[in-house]
């Protein structure tokens, strides 16, 4: 069993005025390192669209503006659509109560809610984590598939480095062609 994610996103204290919250997209991609704040899927394939979520849903905002950077989360469409306006406390200042609600993905405590099984499946580690897991549908197979493709990319990079030190032979050349073709196809998903 492994850690859910290797880093906690950190929102920079951006206070610039913008006319629409979507104007923060490029900054959010940087702060979230091109990953969904909720499921940790990476934003490199066109088949997984990324959006901007309001941690506290817009309908519950009183003192927070809908363009406040501190309330925005870079999120895949799957997590954003599943979370929607779910906010059990209905109070912008209270994120969760009685193991229902959310933790800001930029809070280190978020990492304690989940882990990863060896096959990439997201595992629940707390009662609040279970509530978030179900509300955001983190059980969907796409999260496991994307994690596994990412692990294969890492393994291929390691193998390519190793193969570069080997003498030329047919097997080495065929493996390099295989790796390059695989990478070419996965890059096309992101084009």
UniProtKB/TrEMBL annotation:
Q: Do you know which CDD domains this protein is assigned to?
A: HNHc
Q: Does the keyword Nuclease apply?
A: yes
State any single GO MF term. Answer: endonuclease activity
**One Pfam family of this chain:** HNH
Recorded superkingdom: Bacteria
Does Nuclease appear among the keywords? yes
What is this protein identified as?
HNH endonuclease
Q: Which organism is it from?
A: Sphingobacterium kitahiroshimense
């Amino acid at each position: 069993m492994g850690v859910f994610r290797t880093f906690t996103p950190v929102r920079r204290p951006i206070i610039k005025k913008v006319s629409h919250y979507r104007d923060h997209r490029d900054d959010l991609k940087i702060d979230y390192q091109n990953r969904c704040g909720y499921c940790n899927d990476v934003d490199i394939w066109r088949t997984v669209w990324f959006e901007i979520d309001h941690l506290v849903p817009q309908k519950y905002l009183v003192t927070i503006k809908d363009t406040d950077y501190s309330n925005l989360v870079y999120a895949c469409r799957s997590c954003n659509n599943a979370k929607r306006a779910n906010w059990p406390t209905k109070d912008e200042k209270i994120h969760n109560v009685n193991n229902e609600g959310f933790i800001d993905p930029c809070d280190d405590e978020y990492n304690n809610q989940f882990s990863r099984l060896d096959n990439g499946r997201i595992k629940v580690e707390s009662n609040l984590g279970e509530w978030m897991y179900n509300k955001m549908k983190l059980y969907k197979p796409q999260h496991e598939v994307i994690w596994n493709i990412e692990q294969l990319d890492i393994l291929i990079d390691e193998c390519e480095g190793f193969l570069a030190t080997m003498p030329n032979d047919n097997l080495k050349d065929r493996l390099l062609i295989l790796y390059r073709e695989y990478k070419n196809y996965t890059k096309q998903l992101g084009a």
